[in-house]
Amino acid sequence: MDNLTQLNTLRAFVLGLMPAAVSHKDDSIVLDALRYNDIRHVCQAIRHTQSDDEYFQHLTLRFGGNSEQSVYRFALSETMRISLDLYSLYLAVRLIRCQLDVYRPATIHSVVVPLQSETVSSPQGQQFLREIYRQHSAAMAHIIPCIQLIHSLPPVPALTQQLHWLRAQSDRLWFELNTPSEHLVYTRAFHPDAIKVSQPLTSEASRDGLEPIAAFTREQQIDFIAGRVGTRQDLHHYRSLGASYYFGYIRDIPSTVREMPLRLVASNN
To answer: Most buried in the list 47, 103, 108, 185, measured by CB within 10 Å?
Structure first.
C-alpha cells in the first residue's frame, strides 16, 4: 500500500478496490451509482435523549433523488461492502479535516462511522486502518469507529486481535448490535464506550431483546445509543431503558454535507 498521507491517495486506494469487487448484479448497480455521482455522503445528528442537544454526527452513504436510500439495502458482495466502509472512513477524515480548518476542535461533533466486523478483520481494512491512524491522527481523534456485530463473526482470533489494536488507537470505540444478540458478551473485552442498536422496534421480540443490552450498558457504565428511532413511542421506550443518545427520522433527516463537494468519481482535485 502506498503512503496514504494525502487525502487524494486515500481516496484513490479505496476507489481502486471497487471495480474488482463487482461480482453480481447489485454490485454493478452500486458501482454505476458511484460512476454517476449518485451516491452522497450524509450525516445525521445523534442527540441526547433528555435535552435533544446534538453530541455526535452519524455518517452513512445514501443515493437517490433525495439521498433517501441506503447503499447497504442491496445484497452486496463482501468485498464491495468492505470498500464502501473504507470509503466512509475516508469521507469522515475529509469532513473532520475541513471542520478543523474552520472550527476549534472542542466545538466539533465527533463523527460516528459504522464499520462491519468483516471490514475490520480483512487485510485491506487492517492496512487501511493502520495507515489512517498513523497519518491522520488529528482527524481520527474526532472519529468514532462503530463496529457492527450484526452477522456471524469472521474468524474470531483475527477479529479479536484487530479489535484490541483498534481499542488502543481510538479515543472512543462503539459497537452496534441487533437484537437478540449473541455477541453482547464478546464486546466486554474491548471496553466499549457505547453499545448502539439501530433497528426498527416493529415487534415485541425486538423490544424484549433490548433489555439485556440495556442491562449490560448499565453494568458496564457505558452509553446506550438508540438508532433509527421513528416514533415518539419508540423514543419513550428507549428512554425508559436508560438510553443516553438517539438518532432517527423522528427528529432529523440525514443531510448531505454541502459545504464540501464529495464526489465518488476519481479526479485530479
So the answer is: 47
Note the pLDDT tens digit of each residue in 15-38.
777 777 788 888 888 888 777 767
Strands (E), 117-259: 143-149, 174-177, 194-198, 223-227, 245-246, 255-256
Label residue 256 exposed, middle or buried (CB < 10 Å: 0-12, 13-18, 19+). middle
What values do phi and psi take at 11, rounded to 5? Answer: -65, -45
Quickly count: other Cβ atoms within 10 Å of residue 26's Cβ: 16
Burial class (CB in 10 A: 0-12, 13-18, 19+), 150: middle
- Alpha-carbon distance of 178 to 18, in angstroms, equals 28
Enclosing H/E stretch for 9: helix 7-21
Q: How far apart are CA 22 and CA 249, in angstroms?
A: 32
Stated pTM of the model: 0.88
